[in-house]
Design a protein that fits this description.
The chain is of the alpha+beta class and about 250 residues long. It has one domain: Alpha-Beta Complex (Creatine Amidinohydrolase), CATH 3.90.230.10. Helices cover about 30% and strands about 25% of the residues. It is built from four helices and 15 strands. Strands 8-7-9-14-15 form a five-stranded antiparallel β-sheet. Strands 1, 2, 4 and 5 form a four-stranded antiparallel β-sheet that branches. It has a three-stranded antiparallel β-sheet with strand order 3-12-11, with no helix packed on it. Helix 1 packs across helix 2. The longest helix has 24 residues. The radius of gyration is 17 Å and the shape is globular. The model has no long low-confidence stretch (mean pLDDT about 100). Bound molecules: 2-amino-4-trifluoromethylsulfanyl-butyric acid and cobalt (II) ion. The site of cobalt (II) ion has 5 residues, from loops.
């Protein structure tokens, strides 16, 4: 069932996502060679607490941390552990969720550490471009498959892969709500987009094969072929027939 939100609910979710994006930016400022992923988790916990919200991932299905830190071939849900140390040339996806006033916010960004090749820069930029290609399809009259298709088309036209096994999602009083928002699909399919929907749109892209394998930790999703992966996410509301990206204004 798709939960439709009122404008006052969307205002609260905008605030939840502002908190998420402040946390991501504060974590991003700390990302540098030598820092431990566990230290980034501490930064996130300090900042979210200071802003009067709760980390959404901590305790979610038994997850022990407040952020996910997914480096290089790790796609998503990488654990911010002490022995995970960031180095020059890495690409680091940080995913964070906040719980504020009964509502969730969820966003992610991929940060580049120091100098990388133009090839890698273009790749990481494509994850962000894919988000914007998807969000531009968020309008009343379109369907979820239009978002999916726009993301897939952009990513594949640049020669990259789109992950199938993990998808975007509705968000609200639960972190994951209906509808699923795949990053691949056919236009004109799936649920109708209507005012009051809130969607977490989150392309996960790969430099090679789109297939996923999971680590023994049960969380870390990484590319099957060991090639790089990048991830970009915002929560987006449907307002007055069009999209409103939460937490960035
Ligand atoms: N943002 C992540 C997603 O939408 C949520 C991660 S929950 C965690 O898949 F428990 F893995 F952290
Ligand atoms: Co999400």
């Amino acid at each position: 069932m798709i939960n439709i939100k009122t404008s006052s609910e969307i205002k609260i979710m905008d605030m939840a996502n502002k908190i998420v994006n402040v946390v991501l930016n504060e974590v991003g400022k700390k990302i540098a060679p030598g820092i431990r992923a566990s230290e980034l988790n501490e930064v996130a916990e300090d900042v979210v607490k200071r802003l009067g919200a709760k980390p959404a991932f901590k305790g979610y299905n038994g997850y022990k941390y407040s952020i996910c830190v997914s480096i290089n071939d790790e796609i998503v849900h990488g654990l911010p552990e002490r022995n995970k140390i960031i180095k020059e040339g890495d690409i680091v996806s940080v995913d964070f969720g906040a719980y504020y006033n009964g509502y969730y916010g969820d966003a992610a960004k991929t940060f580049i550490v120091g100098e990388v090749s133009k090839e890698i820069e273009d790749f990481v930029r494509t994850a962000e471009d894919a988000f914007y290609a998807g969000v531009s399809q968020v309008k009343v009259g379109n369907r979820i498959g239009d978002i999916s298709c726009a993301i897939q088309s952009l990513v594949e036209s640049r020669g990259y892969g789109v992950v199938r096994d993990l998808v975007g999602h509705g968000i609200g009083t639960a972190l994951h709500e209906d509808p699923p928002v795949p990053n691949y699909g056919r236009p004109g399919t799936g649920p109708d987009i209507i005012n009051g929907m809130v969607l977490a749109i989150e392309p996960m892209i790969t430099m090679g094969d789109f297939r996923v394998i999971y680590d023994k930790d049960g969380w870390t999703a990484r590319t099957y072929d060991g090639k790089l992966s990048a991830h970009f996410e915002y929560s987006v509301a449907v307002v007055d027939g069009s999209y409103y990206i939460l937490g960035i204004n």
